[in-house]
Pre-mRNA cleavage factor Im 25 kDa subunit (Cucurbita maxima), 217 residues
Amino acid sequence: MGDDGRMHAMEDDESAAADQIRAIDIYPLSNYYFGSKEPLIFKDKTLADRVIRMKSNYAAYGLRTSVEAVLLVELFKHPHVLLLQIRNSIFSLPGGRLRPNESDIDGLKRKLSRKLSANGSPDASDWEVGDCLGTWWRPDFETLLNPYLSNNVKGAKECTKLFLVKLPESRKFIVPKNLKLIAVPLCQLHENHKMYGPVISGIPQLLSKFSFNIIET
């Protein structure tokens, strides 16, 4: 193949790669209203309490399946992820555990409405749940979540699925008083395991297959 042929082949490969990159529309943080409501009651005061509860629930129901949302906004011309902050130190994505036989999409909409809408409104039709970005596994009760499940693990204890949730141009977020909803830039999350844990710090890599279309209003 001559130089011209190789050049055309490279251009075709680049064009094909560009076609595979999907765009995500994101809107400025200033488009959104943030209010508060009655605080949530947390079942676990310590990590040990959480492990005890997980063991009890696993004995009763088996594998714990959780769903979490990646919500994106724009601030300073850069994509930010909305995170819930607990006690000024613990960060989490909005979401939670599914009910028995509840679908991923229905469960995530229910959890988003409970934590981010006024009075935990049961009407979850306005949450637009998109791609599943990744699945994480907890092989036993005490270890961190992993983005894979080893063949030698029998009976994983928890499965967590991350979904991209597209936000509308504007909306009201009504958050429990004992939680904060904060916007954190992708560049701050990247591989920052110590502060955000393995799941949240892995979000920038999961989003690398997308481009960001910032909508100015």
